[in-house]
């Protein structure tokens, strides 16, 4: 059973925050509330429990295994109204919409954070043969956009342009 503080029926709903994170790095999903007093904090991705805090400590009993060992709050800052979530070692599957629910004597609030995940191009390989130029890269997200041009410009239809995009089991291009 998860406790919910109901000293007031006042509820605040704020606009989504958009956060973009890089795969493999740590990322902060911002959330704040009006202190002081006891607080209940629940983070969800859709309906999936990501992190909970109540009775003045982290509660991991209902946390989804996908997030196990990868989440924390800034506990020393909670009394000052900081309910932000630190998501460690971001994965492709972490992208999506998160809800931060807080409940205090001053009311309940829900803050939504849309997490985008990307993997920037780390390296690019160019191969040139007699009549072919090939450009390739790996482990990127979103899919890279490729365009070719010549200087001086070639006649319309003089060049054959082909792009092949593949996705690995991690969702990377």
UniProtKB/TrEMBL annotation:
Keywords from the UniProt entry: Cell membrane, Disulfide bond, Glycoprotein, Immunoglobulin domain, Membrane, Receptor, Signal, Transmembrane, Transmembrane helix
Does Cytoplasm count among this protein's keywords? no
Q: Which residues form the Ig-like domain?
A: 3-114
What biological-process terms (Gene Ontology) are attached? cell surface receptor signaling pathway; cellular response to lipopolysaccharide; immune response; negative regulation of T cell proliferation; positive regulation of T cell proliferation; T cell costimulation
Lipid bilayer topology = Single-pass type I membrane protein
CC terms in the record's Gene Ontology section: external side of plasma membrane
Subcellular localization is given as: Cell membrane
From the Swiss-Prot or TrEMBL record, give the protein name.
Ig-like domain-containing protein
Q: Which organism is it from?
A: Tetraodon nigroviridis (Spotted green pufferfish)
Q: What is the lineage of its organism?
A: Eukaryota, Metazoa, Chordata, Craniata, Vertebrata
């Amino acid at each position: 059973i998860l406790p919910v503080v109901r000293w007031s029926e006042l509820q605040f709903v704020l606009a989504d925050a958009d956060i973009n994170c890089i795969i493999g790095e740590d990322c902060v999903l911002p959330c704040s509330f009006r202190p002081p007093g006891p607080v209940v904090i629940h983070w969800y991705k859709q309906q999936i429990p990501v992190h909970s805090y109540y009775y003045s400590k982290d509660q991991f009993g209902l946390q989804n295994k996908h997030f196990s060992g990868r989440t924390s709050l800034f506990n020393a800052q909670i009394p000052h109204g900081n309910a932000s979530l630190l998501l460690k070692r971001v994965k492709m599957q972490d992208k999506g919409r998160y809800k931060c629910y807080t409940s205090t004597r001053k009311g309940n609030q829900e803050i939504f954070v849309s997490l985008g995940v990307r993997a920037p191009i780390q390296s690019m390989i160019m191969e040139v043969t007699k009549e072919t130029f090939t450009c390739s890269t790996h482990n990127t997200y979103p899919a890279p956009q490729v365009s070719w041009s010549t200087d001086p410009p070639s006649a319309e239809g003089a060049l054959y342009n082909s792009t092949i995009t593949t996705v690995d089991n991690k969702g990377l291009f």
